[in-house]
Write a structure and sequence with these properties.
Helix content: 25-40%
Radius of gyration: 16 Å
CATH superfamily: Gcn5-related N-acetyltransferase (GNAT)
Distance between the termini: 27 Å
Strand order of the largest sheet: 1-2-3-4-5-6-8-7
Number of domains: 1
Oligomer: single chain
Number of helices: 4
Number of strands: 8
Length: 184
């Protein structure tokens, strides 16, 4: 599998546009420094315009499957979604999503964006499986992932530190429904 051109994906309410340096903004920097937004992320809390611009330049240069999530009607950038890294040998992709605009939480945008990316990954990239890691305490994310069809494959006890406490981490996966697996 060769890295394809990263397409714009369109849903009923959203446009997913390849993330690039044009998305560097004070608003985005604020998300990355907002304790509630980054509560369960491994990055954030010390972002500046310069640091964000350098990160976005790296994303752009490395041609990562990484999209800005825009509300189509207003063109408002509300978050990001990615599949990175992609393991070509095993046909796997690691999924991640951030809805940074807290005013847009709870409106179904994360699920809508995710379903478009999953369809692209399974139908166009022919990935067989998507994986993710999520802190068990992040109940809303765990519930969303389960609703989208992810299953828990692994459980890491006291794996990471968030808010000064050791937290358990779940490894979850979603299989390409078009692939039939033979039982051994």
């Amino acid at each position: 599998m060769v890295l394809n051109e990263i397409p714009i994906l369109i849903t009923d309410r959203l446009s997913l546009v390849p993330l690039n340096t044009s998305f560097c903004s004070d608003r985005y920097v604020k998300w990355m420094n907002d304790p509630e937004v980054i509560q369960y992320l491994d990055s954030g809390s010390d972002y500046t315009q310069e640091k964000l611009l350098a990160y976005l330049h790296q994303v752009e240069t490395n041609r990562i499957y990484f999209w800005a999530i825009l509300i189509t009607q207003s063109k408002s950038h509300i978050g990001n979604i990615k599949i990175d890294p992609v393991n070509e040998k095993h046909s796997l992709g690691e999924y991640g999503i951030l809805i940074g605009d807290k005013q847009e939480w709870g409106k179904g945008y994360a699920k809508e964006a995710s379903q478009a990316v999953f369809e692209y990954c399974f139908k166009k990239l022919k990935l067989r499986k998507l994986t993710l890691g999520v802190v068990e305490n992040n109940k809303s994310a765990v519930e969303l992932y389960k609703k989208m069809g992810f299953v828990t494959e692994g459980y890491f006890f006291k794996h990471a530190v968030y808010e000064g406490r050791y937290c358990n981490t779940l490894r979850m996966s979603l299989f390409n429904p078009a692939i039939q697996y033979q039982e051994e």
